[in-house]
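Incident log, structure service

09:12 report received: a user says their structure output differs between two submissions of the same chain.
09:20 pulled the input from the user's history:
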Amino acid sequence: MMFELRITLLDVGIPVWRDIQLDDDTTFSDLHFILQSAFNWSDLHPHTFKFATPHKDKSAESDRLRDHIQGKDDKIIYTYNMEENWEHEIVLQKAMEAKADVLYPRCVRAENLAPEEDHTRLDITDGTLDLAYKDSGEIAKAINEELAYLNVSGLGEGLPGLDEDEWIALDDDEDEWEDDGGHL
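09:34 re-ran on a clean worker, output below:
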């Protein structure tokens, strides 16, 4: 079964959200990486998931979405970067069957830009940072490019065929790898 989730970044002054379709078998560990891609972040800070209606006594990163989302009233709060306290409300929009010709996870709609990783709420409230962006289709396309990469790399498991030493070499070689943060 596939879920379509609305993930809304809270308290940033304008609507910033993503509608993501993904398998209900997705782990919370993988969901974290999906959210990092959807909001153009790089996993530099701690994160937590909190459940408005827990369906289990304990939760773990290996839990599946379906363990905690079982109806439209179920809500999850994902908090990233505890200093800035970027809270996201995750709500089930709909459940559906997977389409054979579609690559999941995927972003089907997006509204406005997310703040860059090193920005603060003060940057937003004082006008230093403007999150408004008119072309939501362009945002969704950029997110889907990132999500396609996650599909190839196994959602946080590293690129197939590369051992850990080769991963480190890719990260350390600035001439061949430059991270621009993926922001539009």
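09:41 both user submissions now match this output. Likely a transient worker issue. Closing.
09:42 reviewer note: The longest strand covers residues 86-96. The two ends are 32 Å apart (CA to CA).
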